[in-house]
Amino acid sequence: MTIKQRLTLSSILLVILPVTAFFVIEISLGYLFFIVPGADVNEENTGAFTTLRFVLFLLAVILINILLILMLARSITRPLDRLSAAAKEMGKGNLDITVTAGGKDEISALAREFDGMRRKLKIEKELNERYEEEKRHMIAGIGHDLRTPVTSIKGYVDGLIDGVPGTPEKREKYLKTIAAKADELDTMIDELSLFSRLDEGRAGLLMENVELDQLLSHIIDELKLEIETSSIELSFENNVGQTIIPADRMKLSRVFVNILNNSVKYRRHEKHRISVQISTADSLAQVMVSDNGRGIGNDALLKVFQPFYREDSSRNKNTGGSGLGLSIAKSIIESHDGYIEIESEPERGTRVIIMLPLSEVQNDQDIDCGR
């Protein structure tokens, strides 16, 4: 019952109950005064009857009003008290308290809205705590990864100043190591900058119609030159022909280069196979990169897209980069209205699936081919 209905009912009862009480008092007193004792109706009896009737009627009216007001107030103040207590607990930071409301009145509706707000605040608090934890992890990762090459550079520079390398060949080795560490530092700063811009939505995309099959073919040809001395088998399968997508060519290339480099880096034996396949379905282009490498554990698979996460806890540069590669890849793919997922089994291999929307040009060509 709504508050308005309660007020209406109370108003009606404030009329009906006193009238009913009047007739009950009238009949009861008449019976007691005149019927039971068999007394005559005279001025004395009538005066006493009238006075007592008025007093009892007045008391009945007061009692009825008090009871109705108390009942109405109680039905309103009790849920409000619960809301007030819940608000105080929330003010103290306790978002686990629940506000139950089973009625259909305005206060019950307010209580349900209040509890919905509490749940949203709790979710937001949990997300913020998770974000703060990830931020602490990120800061620790940044500090560690920046400190490592800087410390190495400082050590080699100190060695050069102190004249540790006694031969030109050794000095050249020191200088090459310093240059390599500086390049590593420059790459890391570049990835940090890109990650920051992507995270804040400030990394503008230079969109154009890109032939995905040609882009992948070019990347794979370059990688084949880099791994030609190894026994890695790299294959490319395109059964759909020309595949055009709207994309930022440079950023999308970065994604595929990172995924392929990871596949090369995490091989587990000499007969390492990497397969890249293109297909299309439902106005989407699908790129699948699969290998028979080390694979990823179930726990690590849930965290691979987290910034600075590496399955190798030692943060060894020989087996892992900055830990930003897949996080950047995910942000770039999502900025293209696509999605990326990874399936993997330890010691069995990994499969990366990327879905990207096709260009309108591609869709028009597909329609023409189907006619």
Automatic annotation (TrEMBL):
SUPFAM superfamilies: ATPase domain of HSP90 chaperone/DNA topoisomerase II/histidine kinase, HAMP domain-like, Homodimeric domain of signal transducing histidine kinase. GO terms for molecular function: ATP binding; phosphorelay sensor kinase activity. Its main location: membrane. It catalyses: ATP + protein L-histidine = ADP + protein N-phospho-L-histidine. It comes from the Bacteria. The chain crosses the membrane at residues 12-34, 54-73. Keywords: ATP-binding, Cell membrane, Kinase, Membrane, Nucleotide-binding, Phosphoprotein, Transferase, Transmembrane, Transmembrane helix, Two-component regulatory system. Residues 74-126 form the HAMP domain. It is an enzyme of class 2 (transferase). Its EC number is 2.7.13.3. Residues 141-360 form the Histidine kinase domain. Pfam families: HAMP (PF00672), HATPase_c (PF02518), HisKA (PF00512). It is found in: Cell membrane. InterPro entries: HAMP_dom, HATPase_C_sf, HATPase_dom, His_kinase_dom, HisK_dim/P_dom, HisK_dim/P_sf, HssS/ArlS-like, Sig_transdc_His_kin-like_C. It is a multi-pass membrane protein. GO terms for cellular component: plasma membrane. This is histidine kinase. It comes from Candidatus Salinicoccus stercoripullorum.
